[in-house]
Amino acid sequence: MIRQAAVPLLFFSALLASGCAEPKTASGINGVTPVHLPDVRTPVQLDADARQEHRAVMLQHLETVQAIVAALADEDYRLAQGLTETHLGFFMHRHAMARQQPENFPPAYHDLAMAHHEAAEKLADAMPSRDLKQILPEFNKVLKACVACHLEYKLRSS
Ligand code: HEC
């Protein structure tokens, strides 16, 4: 009985998975890049220490984004501003670059990094408005800058 029901169910899942249910565009469903794209990212060669440092900064970036969202949910705009400035702004950039062999990153990587820090400074500036209609579009730009770089670069050729 169960096995009989499983066959149409499997067929239906296969249909869903093949994308019949959702219209897809070049940029994926609802603007999200599909997971299984060919990997065309440019590798940046770093030694083990610099790689470790880069990873620590990235993990902290994600944690900072989480903490900013938590602060916004608490309506603590001052904390949200401080976190954004300290951990995502130009201050963070100088700190990270001092430890990550900046000469090993291509100029275009630096441009993406600077665009990201600039977006973060604008987000920090929007925080005192206490208005999510002003804050969220700037937050979106920061996250777009994270995504833009992740689509272009990876740390090794594997
Ligand atoms: C200028 C480029 C750039 C920007 C901007 C950037 N990243 Fe990254 N990030 C990278 C690269 C390169 C990697 C390594 C990817 C790889 O080797 O597969 C990475 C890896 C990561 C990882 C995985 C770390 C691990 O455990 O290996 C996380 C999480 C991450 N980034 C979060 C963020 C967040 C959040 C932001 C924005 C607030 C951000 N990144 C902005 C370049 C960037």
TrEMBL record:
Pfam families: Cytochrom_C_2. It comes from the Bacteria. This is Cytochrome c. InterPro entries: Cyt_c/b562, Cyt_c_II. GO terms for biological process: electron transport chain. The keyword Signal applies. Keywords: Signal. It comes from Nitrospira defluvii. One of its GO terms (molecular function) is heme binding.
